Structure formats: C-alpha cells, structure tokens
Amino acid sequence: MLREHDHGAIVRVELARTFLGHVIYHVYCYLIDGLLIDTGPPATAAAMARWAAARRIRRVVLTHHHEDHSGGAPLLARSLGVPVEAPAATVRVLANFPRIPAYRRLVWGQPGSAELKPLGDVTETERYRFRVVPTPGHAADHVALFEEREGWLVSGDLYISPRAVYLRPVEDAWTILASLERLRDLHPKLLLCSHAGLVADATRALERKIAYWRGLAERARQLAAAGGSVASVARRLLGREGAMALISLGDFSKRNLIRCLLEDPGGPRRLGD
Questions:
Q1: 170, part of any domain
Q2: Residue 229 belongs to a domain
Q3: CATH code: domain of residue 130
Q4: Rg of the chain on CA atoms, in Å
Q5: Poorest-pLDDT segment among 113-117, 229-233, 236-240, 245-249
Q6: pLDDT confidence of residue 271
Q7: At what angle do helices 202-225 and 173-184 cross, to 10 degrees?
C-alpha cells in the first residue's frame, strides 16, 4: 500500500504491507523540494519506485539502515538514477544487508543490498538546507535532519510517540534520551516522524517524551528498590505485554524498556543494530 498526503511544501508518503485489506504496520517517508527522505520497506519497494518515477526526485537520503526505512533503496538506486545517500555506518550495512528476524520479514520483508553514497554533515535542495544530526540509541547509525530556517525536524524513529513503551534489547533508552535532548535543544517547530506523522509544537512534544521516560525510570527504580523484579515492575507501570511482544517472541517488549531504564545511565552504553 502507498498513500500520498500533501502538506504544501512537505509530501508525506505512507507505506505498509497489508493482510486481507488491513494495514499491518505503516511507516512514513517524506518528499521535500526534490529530496526523498527514507524509502519504505522491501514489501513496498515496487510501489515506491513507480510513485517516485513520476516525481522530480533529485536525491534520496536514509536516516538509518532499518528495513522499513532502507528497504526501497536498492530498487530506487537502480531506477531513479539519482544519488542515494546515507550515514557511513548505514552504507556499510546496506553493502551486505544481514538476514533479519522472521517477525520483521513478515511485517516489512527482507531487504536487499545496495551501494550507497556517504552522507555529509549537510544535505541541501534548491530551497532548503538540512543539517545532519547524529542521534544514536534506536540504532547506532541513526541521524535526524534539521531545517533550521523552517524549524522542520525529520526525526526518523527517535520520537515515535510521547509515551512509547516498547524497546528492543539492542536499543538503549538512555542513549535515546540523550539524542532526544540534543534534538529538543534545537528548538524545532514541526516534527516529521516516521510513524507519528507530522507533530506540531515539536519542542514540547520532545519534552513530553523525555519527561515521561525519565519519570518512568524514577518510578521503576523505586519499585525495584522495594524488591520488584523487572517483569513485575514492567507489569505494574505499563500493564501486561501486548501482541507486539508475542509476535516478536519478546524482542519488542515493555520489559526491555524497564530493564534498560533500571540500568545505570552513566554506565557503558549499548548501541542499537
């Protein structure tokens, strides 16, 4: 499935694999003044390539290597004849994309490999200038793009929602928080999120997520100090695990978030795959 949403200077492209007419999980890419940011999953690569062929796309940029962001890149790289750029670490992953877990293949499809160009510190269009901001935590190679004059912040997978409660073991909540604080300090006006869509009052939205996770960490520490296990603390604060934990065999769970928040924020940090 591909749906286009026009927001004036910003075009939001909704992509998803469907089952019996129902969307399994969607992701958004953005087209701004000839710059396509992210490419959607492998499952919608052909639809994305057909859509892109009818647009004036001069450059493609990836925020990170995860399959719902980079999966359309191999086909676009072959079909568009324009530069496809990504952070250096993303370029290395896409050169030989590893096999991903079964549940992710079900939702998005297995990505192929592609030769990409390294992304610099800035990417420009005719009208806009985006600063590339390293924002690890969700993935080691994750970057955000900030158009300072307009106040637009393309946040990839860093924001998702103000009360996100699921985490994978390879992600690090404290590193994500540091990255969120780095973005908050840019004072953005509009957030362009890969899953929440366009979020107005972006600085306040980032502050709400930061405050929620920091408050959650403090409450988790109090319960753990009183003898609570990770599982009991997660259940007390966030409720029972949902379908995401079941489908992913625990890879994507509330328990992972609580476990990470209970770790020492000043200790060695993990970096997501």
A1: yes
A2: no
A3: 3.60.15.10
A4: 18
A5: 245-249
A6: 63
A7: 150
| CA dist., res. 263 & res. 5, Å (int) | 41
Distances 183 to 37, 144, 203 between C-alpha atoms, Å: 18, 8, 8
Nearest one of 116, 164, 113, 118 to 137, comparing CA atoms = 164
In a domain, 251, yes or no: no
The letter for the amino acid at 205 is A
pLDDT tens by residue, 43-101: 999 999 999 999 999 999 999 999 999 999 999 999 998 999 999 999 999 999 999 99
Which range (14-18, 45-49, 256-260) has the least confidence?
A: 14-18
Say how far apart CA 26 and CA 23 lie, in whole Å: 7
273: burial class by Cβ within 10 Å (0-12, 13-18, 19+)? Answer: middle
Position 32 pLDDT exceeds 90: yes
The set of residues, in sequence order, having a beta carbon less than 8 Å from that of 31 and lying 6+ positions away, is 10, 11, 13, 37, 55, 57
Q: Which domain covers residue 181, as residue numbers?
A: 2-212
Share of residues in the chain with pLDDT > 70 (%): 97
Q: How far apart are CA 210 and CA 212, in angstroms?
A: 5
CB 261 within 8 A of CB 127: no
Residue whose pair of structure tokens reads 């997520």 in the numeric block: 209
Q: How many domains are there within the chain?
A: 1
Give strand pairing partners of 84: 60
What is the value of pTM for the model shown?
A: 0.94
In this structure, is residue 257 part of a structural domain? no
